[in-house]
Amino acid sequence: MAEMLAHPDWFLSHLLQLIGFTAMAAGLWAFAASVQLPPRSSQWCRFAIGGTILQAIEMAFHTAAMVDHHNLVAGAPTPILTTHLAMAVALYPLFALTLTGFIVAAARDRVLNWWAGALGIIGVIGHGISAPLVVAFDIEAARVLFPMIVLVALWMLIVAATYRSAAG
Which one of 60, 62, 98, 104 is CB 3.0 to 4.6 Å from 47, fit for a cystine? Predict the structure, then answer.
């Protein structure tokens, strides 16, 4: 952990993720506001917006955890890092649950395509279980799951490029 927090790319890479989650929440919000969604999809979209906002808040702590590097090395308390780790264990799965729920509901309601949704679901579930496996269960091999969030980004790009509303 100390090595990761000291890495020169820590701040920028995590700041970009924070910006991405913030943009995702805004995009989901704008989508919900601009499209007449069926009730089930609308409800799950609201849940996904909330889950994404919580994921963005966690990512803010995640990004800021680097300030605890010296404390971690010295064996002193690490309040930001500890907060980030606790939030990650709880909020990564919550984000995965809410976004998966939205993707499934939107596919069932024929608002979004299943084929693209499967990509988003695989990505968000992989990412969602990564923090609990690594942090709570100390399964280091599960670190390979963190980058699966890229599949969610790809899903969002596909949806943005292929979505056609009923009006147009």
Answer: 98
Instruction: Please report, for the chain, the start and end positions of each structural domain, with discontinuous segments joined by +.
Output: 2-162
Specify whether the CB–CB gap between 13 and 65 falls below 8 A. Answer: no
| 141, amino acid identity | A
Q: Which residues contact 134 (CB under 8 A, 6 or more apart)?
A: 140, 142, 143, 146
| SS3 of the chain: helix, strand, coil, percent, to 5 | 85, 0, 15
DSSP per-residue string spanning 84-143: HHHHHHHHHHHHHHHHHHHHHHHHHTTSS-HHHHHHHHHHHHHHHHHHIIIIIT--GGGG
pLDDT digits (tens, 9 = 90+) for 102-159: 999 999 999 998 989 999 999 999 999 999 999 999 999 999 999 999 999 999 999 9
pLDDT band with cut points at 50, 70 and 90 for residue 168 = very low
Distance in angstroms (rounded) separating the CA atoms of residues 63 and 54: 14
